[in-house]
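Retro notes, item 3 of 5
We never archived the inputs for the zinc ion complex last cycle. Fixing that now. Sequence and ligand:
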Amino acid sequence: MTRDLALLPKGHLHLHFEASMRPATLRDIASEADEPVPSWSDFADFSDFEAAYGDVLRLIRRPDQLERIMTELADDAKADGVVYVEATLAPVLHQHLFGGDAEAVLDFLLAAAKREEERTGVVIRAMLASARSGPVELAVEDARLAARYAGRGVVSYGLHSDERGFPAAPFVEAFDVARTAGLLITPHAGELVGPASVREAVEVLHADRILHGVRVIEDPDLTAEVARLGVCLDVCPSSNVVLHVVPDLDHHPLPALLAAGVTCSINADDPIQFGPNVLEEYELCRDRLGLTDEQLAGCARASITASGAPEDVKTRALAGIDAWLAS
Ligand SMILES: [Zn+2]
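Structure as it came back at the time:
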């Protein structure tokens, strides 16, 4: 008997909004922009990937295209058994479509998320994130924007983009603003840089969750500390393969992290560029990494308990996970 992973209630905590775009949508917006469809087969490194993300962003020319992405994100989440999405938004990327007003972008996206939640039942909340390669002042502005929307759709604040040469420590003020507003602290770390980056996220930023974080495994003491603190790693196996964080899926450290007692959720990161959606990531974790149904249910449980989902959503999802495991 094989339990259907589509029926396992799960949260999706590490999903960059624009990269949730379907391939057909990418083709359509390229055609509407009269531009070639961006294509990629391999990324030499993270910079290559970031440039490709920029190519996708440049094709988004109208607000209704953002609405389409949100609609399809909700439909795809529902099909994957996702009951809660914490989508990473960076309003600054689209403010040129809204007269330079980042708050107008956020209002627009949160309203779209709310409509989709009512239509599909998938609860959608936002993580705001700043580029760690960008100016600290801009991050503080982003964090203030996130803080103003705490309790109104934004639940977490993080840092993304290239870790190499861009430590997180200078961003302490931005994270203080977010924490004071009651937001979860959710930086990317431990992807392109090793344990030092995870240590910084834990000890300097006091992260509640770390997006990726997988390279903590290189330091057994720090791994034990992350496990003890219960900091959740929002792990994205296929992303780590495509961006050469691990040599191949069979060498992914997720089983070792779980064996060490680290709390982990399973996520897709950037499906338009990496391929698998979140359900397929769960299936890969079962088929290729050998995770048991108990472990997969544990990851689903983490994706709910460590999230910014409303309490009633958490209660319902956790009961659903127990029921799945008992089935
Ligand atoms: Zn990411």
